[in-house]
Amino acid sequence: MGLTRLLVRAAAARPRVLLVTTPGGTAVRLAAERELRCRDWPTAATPAGADLMLVAGPECRERCRELGPALDRLWEDTPRPRVRLRAETAEDVAAALDTGRARLGATEHAHSGAGRTGRTHGQSGGTGRTPGQGEGSGRTRTAGGEWRTSADGERRAPVGGDTDGGMEMPGGLPMAEVGEDRDGLALDRLHVSLGPFLADWPSGLIVHLVLQGDVVQRARLGGPCGGTTEPFWARPWARAAEGEPVPLAEAARRRAAAHLDSLGRLLAVAGWPAEAVTARRIRDDLLERAPAEAVLPRALRLQRRVGRSRTLDRLTRGIGTLSTADARAAGVSGPAARAGGDVPARYRRWLADAVDDVRRLDGRSLLGPTAPDPGALTDAAAPPVPTALLDPTAQESPRGRWDAGRPPSVALAGLLPRLLEGTELAAARLVVAGLDPDPDELAALTREFTGG
Amino acid sequence: MVEAGAWWTPLAAPALLLGLAALAVAGDAALDARGAGRSVTPAGVLRPFLAVPRALVEQPRRLPASDRWLWRLGVVTVPVAAVLSTLVIPFGNHVAADLSVGVVWFNAMEVMTWAGLWLAGWGPNAAFSLVGGYRFLAQGLAYELPLMFALISAATGARSLRVSGVAEAQHGLWYAVWMPFAFAVYLAGVLAFSFLGPFAYPAGRDIADGVLGETCGVDRLLLRAGRWLWLAAGAAMAVPLFLGGGAGPWLPAWAWSLVKTLLVLGLLVWVMRRLPVVRADRYVEVAWVVLLPAAIAQALVPALVGLGAG
Fold first, then answer.
1. Residues A401 and A253 in one domain
2. Looking at beta carbons, which residues of chain A come within 8 Å of B278?
3. Is residue A217 part of a domain?
4. Domain that holds residue A354
5. Per residue in A212-266, pLDDT tens?
6. Considering chain A, what is the average pLDDT of its residues?
7. pLDDT at A149 over 80
């Protein structure tokens, strides 16, 4: 079949990649996002739209063993021809992608075991035990436990053994049960989990939702599968806290990039892919040690475009409102607390902080936002202080004041259930993206969940 | 004078539509490449079309308890309705079918995408798909009435529902000039029924591509092609409705139609990237409180002018 081979080869020239990040894989994810953008390989939001599945990050070990089956389910849902890849370090990414494309272009591989793709529900026995089945597509059917009895939010509804075995329910799926909504009407309740692997989602975080229509009636934080001892974004702070000398400029660079990463995710969730790409490009250039004068004009332009967009403001206004006092009471200390407001307040804070940090890169004004003399920030005549070191207590880490025992993202994640209840699904995504807890910092929370 | 029903027109209309849609896809790819810092090359611009061979070799998925037939029906409806809508759009001096109710035909085909997309969301029996399908209905409630009044404004001005009649009625003065608001509402409607750019709400990234999320292979190709075909059809329809059809100096009518269609298409592709997705829950408010009354007021203008002219 010459034609088929030709088609397969042509299709493999631009594979769509389902990028899945495992806990601690932030650096690999960043490398992969950059590589995919440069190669013009689209990223898929669901397994159905993917040819390659790239698992970025270290192997799932004890802390996140539950993620293994979730990964397998994503893989089972990917239509053939398909290739599964793994990149454990940032250096592996390019080679892994090359391998993936080569294997995808090989017809023999593409059509081996071609009988059936997709997966029937009856096979999901093994995944029924997964707590975080809100895989990429957030689909009701494959995710075994996403349909649950509403009487007992925890208990999984009985799952049929075989799809073709004459089940009473269509496809062996339990029906949604009825519950009262906020207006006292009896409406269907649907149990949907967001995470752990959802497009533009803090990878590893799991939020169990009870939906009526698309309104979140109840939200519960699932055991987050995440946490590393050295989260990528807060690494300078973690190292400084252990007494290692870390240049302040490096910390500022990392913090600006972290804010831009969060911003890119928020913009993607808000449905503005063009500006999300801009934010991510600036982020990548910062991490590649681009000089401040090259980055600053672009950061300012982004701040103008996004920060002053009245459309984006109107669309996100009033969502996830959190006053500074409430935030501080919940233990949040970072930009989310300083912004003190809704989603627009938070993304403007990120933009302003990122621009400030970029200004600080050139070594002229190395004092932090808590500097006693604000004039020092703009004093161009001040002598350069290239040896200024990061003081982890005076300088905020990207998500807030650094505390190795209880990283700032733990408080952010803790706020989620309260802020999510009563929102619509789209707003719920914006709330999560607007707070953007870093799953790598959630080790403490993971311990709480697994310990208690 | 527009000549209808030449034997080749029912073949030329879909081919032309496909060509325009392909140009829009290529233009979008070029803007994507520029935004991502890649060099804009002819090869790079053509890369999105690799989705076609991929769709052909990709194997179908079987989902439990999915409504396969309704799903397939919905997926097919979207591009087919887009192609059918072009039958009444004059291009230069030719049109496939010069119906006396051409404007209504176009609108009816566009409304068929409501059913098509909802079914496409319903079929796979998946939460995010279904949310996506319903999102299109919510979006439809917001955009459809202002769009209909925009169409009515043009038809009232021409006192004809025949598309070629509307084009001919604009001797010298385009409706886009003296009904700018109706034109703007129409263009927003085009983006909305092709669910692209700021109106990509039913296929939003926040619900993992919504109606597109569970589709693969040819189904996915058809739905995605349907979006761009609708964009091209909407741009082509804007020319007879608001931009005087094929009328213009020096060039032949078909060339003017082509130039105007390409300009509208280019404008739409450019605008798509400049705005975030407009969520229907917020847009409905604007649509019903601001756009709808204003669209009615706009429709009154040609009506009064028509009455005055006797």
1. yes
2. 311, 315
3. no
4. 235-451
5. 878 888 888 876 565 666 788 888 888 888 888 888 888 888 999 999 999 999 9
6. 75
7. no
Contact A7, A421 (CB under 8 A): no
pLDDT of residue A452: 37
Residues of A in contact with B216 (CB under 8 A): 48-49, 79
**Is A201 contained in some domain?**
no
pLDDT band per the 50, 70, 90 thresholds, residue B150: very high
Q: Which two tokens stand for residue A55?
A: 């698992």
User: Given this model, what pLDDT does residue B59 score?
Assistant: 82
Q: What is the mean pLDDT of the segment spanning A144-160?
A: 32
Residues 199-238 of A with CB under 8 A from B: 199-200, 211, 214
Q: A52, A86, A110 — which closes off a domain?
A: A110
Cα distances (Å, whole numbers) of residue A393 to A230, A242, A374: 17, 12, 19
Whole-angstrom Cα distance, residue B116 to residue B212?
A: 12
Assess A53–B contact: CB distance below 8 Å, yes or no. Answer: no
User: Between A120 and A84, whose confidence is greater?
Assistant: A84
Q: To probe the interface with B, which of A137, A283, A308 has the most B CB atoms within 10 Å?
A: A137
* Contact across the interface for B216 and A48, Cβ inside 8 Å: yes
Residue B140: pLDDT over 70:
yes
**Residue ranges covered by each domain of chain B:** 3-309
**Under 8 Å between Cβ of B124 and B63:** yes
How far does chain B reach from its first CA to its final CA, in angstroms?
A: 25
Whether B125 sits inside 8 A of A171 (CB atoms) is yes
Residue A321 maps to which CATH number? 1.10.645.10
The verdict on A99 and A242 lying in the same domain is: no
- Distance from the B256 Cα atom to the nearest Cα atom in chain A, whole angstroms: 32
A contact test, residue of B49, B54, B269 with most A CBs within 10 A: B54
- CATH number of the domain to which A31 belongs: 3.40.50.12280
Show residues of chain B in contact with A163, CB under 8 Å.
Answer: 64
Determine, for residues B58 and A80 on separate chains, whether the beta-carbon distance falls below 8 Å.
Answer: yes
pLDDT at B15: 92
The backbone torsions φ and ψ at residue A66, rounded to the nearest 5 degrees and listed phi first, read -60, -20
The string of pLDDT tens digits covering residues A260-296 is: 999 999 999 998 999 999 999 999 999 988 888 888 8
- Domain closes at, from A92, A110, A128: A110
A48 and B213 within 8 Å at the Cβ level: the answer is yes
- Range B109-119 burial, b when 16+ CB lie within 10 A, else e: bbebbbbbbbb
Residue A259 lies in a domain: yes
Q: Which of A10, A26, A195 is CA-nearest to residue A107?
A: A10
CB contact under 8 A, B62 and A118: yes
Q: Which amino acid is at A128?
A: G
> Considering chain A, what percentage of its residues have pLDDT values greater than 70?
73
pLDDT at A365: 44
Q: Which residues of A touch B38 (CB under 8 A)?
A: 37-38, 40
Q: How many CB atoms lie within 10 A of CB A301?
A: 12
Q: Is a pLDDT exceeding 70 seen at residue B216?
A: yes
3-state secondary structure of B50: helix
The domain tally of chain A equals 2
Instruction: For residue A183, give the DSSP letter.
Output: T
Q: What is the 3-state secondary structure (H, E, C) of B143-199?
A: HHHHHHHHHHHHHHHHCCCCHHHHHHHCCCCCHHHHCHHHHHHHHHHHHHHCCCHHH
Whether A227 is in a domain gets the answer no
CB interface of B with A, residues 226-245, below 8 Å: none
Tens of pLDDT, residues A59-93: 776 666 677 788 888 888 888 888 888 888 888 89
CB half-sphere exposure, A391, CA atoms < 13 A = 9
From the number of C-beta atoms within 10 Å of its C-beta (0-12, 13-18, 19+), residue B27 rates as middle
Give residue B41's pLDDT: 87
- Is A240 in the same domain as A106? no
